[in-house]
Amino acid sequence: AGSFQDAGVIQHAYDMNFPLHVAPASCAQCPTWSAFSVSSPAVVLEAVKQASPQGRAEDRPDALLVRLYEAHGSTVGTWLQTSFPIQEAMLCDLLEQPTAQGHLPLELQGVRLFFTPFRVLSVLLVLRQ
């Protein structure tokens, strides 16, 4: 009932096509942990990879490239949160080169991102050493 957004079709499709794999934990009471999360169900975190200044993902061990897109056809703001220690964040083009908008402020809630309908964003996250 309702729209595909209300029914959670995007999430159900990912759940079906990319099922979670269970890995044994070292203890029964291990704390929960999430590498990345986004605060809006309209935004899908599609890829995380090692980034490079030359546009090749294998060449930069101190940075991660996160690619996200807006899937509901809406204009929305979201928080990108990570458990990794981030030194700086910046928007990149699809070739992984920093854009003119430059650096994104790091806040307690994470990195604030804004999407127009079906927009793809690439964010370079430089890790603290």
Task: Fill in the CATH topology.
Answer: Immunoglobulin-like
Annotation field: number of helices: 2
Residue-averaged pLDDT: 88
Distance between the termini: 49 Å
Strand content: 35-45%
Identify the strand order in the major beta sheet. 2-3-9-5-6
Structural class: mainly beta
List SSEs in N-to-C order. HHEEEEEEEEE
- Total count of domains: 1
> What are the low-pLDDT stretches, counting only 5+ consecutive residues below 50?
none
Q: Which architecture name does CATH use?
A: Sandwich
The CATH class name reads: Mainly Beta
What share of the residues lie within helices?
Answer: 10-25%
Largest sheet: 5 strands, antiparallel
Radius of gyration: 16 Å
Count of individual beta strands = 9
